[in-house]
Amino acid sequence: MAQPVTWQIGTVKSIRQETPRVKTFTITLPDKPPHRAGQHYDIRLTAPDGYQAQRSYSIASEPERAGEIDLTVELIEDGEVSTYLHEVVVPGDQLELRGPIGGYFVWEAGMGGPMLLVAGGSGVVPLMAMIRHRCAANSDAVMRLLYSARTMEDVIYYNELEQLRGSQAGLDIFYTLTRVQPPEWTGYARRIDDEMLSEVASPLGDSLTAYVCGPTLLVETAAAALARLGLPFERIRTERFGPTGT
After folding, report:
1. Share of residues in the chain with pLDDT > 90 (%)
2. Structural domains of the chain, count
3. How far is 104 from 224, CA to CA, in rounded Å?
4. How far apart are CA 189 and CA 192, in angstroms?
5. Which among 221, 212, 218 has a CA at the least distance from the CA of 244?
6. Which of 44, 76, 95, 215 has the fewest beta carbons under 10 Å from its own?
């Protein structure tokens, strides 16, 4: 029987700036239950007057990491929790967390592949946990990530993704930059559409499973396109975030 998920106090170990509006918080936990790539944690803030604000953030780190998790958080305009995390929290601070949570949008190495990962903006976070888990588990599951962002500066984990692209057989990374592209850019330069998904997904064959995460419009567009391409509904897993830059 699964143990109930309870609140605990974690300590911020380090903070890393990923993009101008995104930071990764490494948090140590006194009791870190095993998590699955794709799950999330809730963070709860409590003001002196008792007012509480709570938000959910996907785990970016692989399950193999012991005693700590990475939560990658985008600064949302007027976002109570994200603003506090970005503008107030420093290493050594404590946060109230609850997790891991979620059982649908998850992947374990034993599930195998091939897999198509489709991300918009900060929707890449749970998919990055899957990629990191694949590497840590020495899995040979074939993965292809299609990542939509406004500009190259908005691509979260860019340096790590490029390093993995060059060192991990069976892992391919594709970007589409919807607003501004660097000089001599040869990647995609538009919103995700049927043609783009077909080009990226076709080498995976007919048995692929797709994980799509990002803002609602991107997720609905990509899921519908994958269905039109013949992928059965039960092999299209989706998770929606709020508005973000894609």
Report:
1. 87
2. 2
3. 19
4. 9
5. 218
6. 44
